[in-house]
Design brief:
Layout: H1 5-17, H2 24-39, E1 45-50, E2 58-63, E3 71-76, E4 87-88, H3 92-124, H4 134-155, H5 163-179, E5 185-190, H6 198-206, E6 212-217, E7 225-229, E8 241-245, E9 250-255, E10 257-259, E11 264-267, H7 269-272, H8 279-288
Parallel strand pairs: 3-5, 3-6, 6-9, 7-8
Antiparallel strand pairs: 1-2, 2-5, 4-11, 7-9, 10-11
């Protein structure tokens, strides 16, 4: 599927320049770029803060009239932490367990490397200790860098390959904002989606009672599209979207493989590391809300 020059620009910047969206600084950089891009297409964009802490605040970005919209299309923008194995959609406990396992394993490896490095230094270093020598200063700098890195590892490393999860959904929403001018549809880019539902819960407090919410996740993966919830309109859904009707407040539209044994949805590590978007899925999702 051919991409426009504007979409190619979005793809490059959000895949590489703004792919990390986890710290306060990196999130602000991303939001500044996102709001600038949206403001070129529409004026009704706003950033709201919630769950404010001393040095941190969560932020959602809304496009359109959230309170009066009949439908709100949303996705999370924050970067998930590194974990092991596949990504099990809708299973927070599994995600937490795999993230914790990765942190523990990487921390133990880092400590082991530190111990080995210390033993090697003790065997090779001279008996006399000179504080102002170049070699001593270099060792101090190495140890300082090591402990800074160890501190980051113990807190969990950010996943740097975020094109599929969840940059692809962000790009799809930008495409929809550019092409869909329906005033009854609003859009929301949500914070805190990798760890829980804080951003989604904040959105639900803002919408009206009859509003339909559609939550996108990893739709650019090389995997089938699924819609669990309610149809966005009365028109017939395409054959390339597997539809599962469910009476729930939030409908989920995502790309994933299906474990027939456990009736669970997942993306394997190879899916998550893809460097190419499944543009067919993105176009299908965009057309679904036209």
């Amino acid at each position: 599927m051919e991409q426009s020059e504007v979409f190619k620009d979005w793809l490059f910047r959000y895949q590489y320049v703004y792919r990390l969206r986890r710290t306060e600084k990196s999130k602000k950089r991303f939001l500044a770029a996102l709001v600038t891009d949206i403001a070129k297409m529409r004026e009704d964009v706003q950033v709201i803060e919630y769950d404010q802490q001393k040095k941190y605040a969560s932020r959602n970005v809304y496009v359109g009239n959230i309170k009066q919209a009949d439908r709100v299309i949303c996705t999370f923008y924050d970067t998930p932490p590194e974990s092991i194995g596949s990504y099990q959609l809708f299973d927070r406990k599994d995600q937490a367990r795999k993230t914790t396992t990765f942190i523990l394993a990487s921390t133990l490896i880092a400590i082991l490397l530190g111990v080995i490095g210390t033993l090697i230094y003790m065997r090779l270093s001279p008996d006399s200790f000179q504080l102002n020598s170049l070699s001593t200063i270099m060792i101090m700098l190495i140890y300082a860098g090591y402990f800074i890195l160890l501190g980051k590892i113990t807190k969990g490393l950010s996943n740097r390959k975020t094109l599929v999860r969840n940059t692809s959904s962000i790009l799809a929403m930008l495409k929809m904002i550019a092409e869909n001018k329906q005033k009854n549809i609003a859009y929301a880019f949500l914070d805190e989606g990798s760890y829980g539902n804080k951003g989604l819960e904040e959105l639900q407090r803002q919408v009206n009672g009859h509003c339909k919410i559609y939550y996108l996740d990893s739709i650019g993966a090389t995997a089938p599209l699924h819609l669990v919830g309610k149809l966005p309109s009365n028109k017939k859904i395409g054959e390339n979207v597997e539809y599962q009707e469910a009476d729930q407040k939030v409908s989920y539209l995502f790309s994933a493989r299906k474990d027939q044994t456990n009736a669970a949805f997942y993306l394997n590590p190879a899916d998550l590391k893809k460097k190419q978007l499944n543009m067919d899925n993105i176009v299908t999702v965009t057309n679904l809300f036209q």
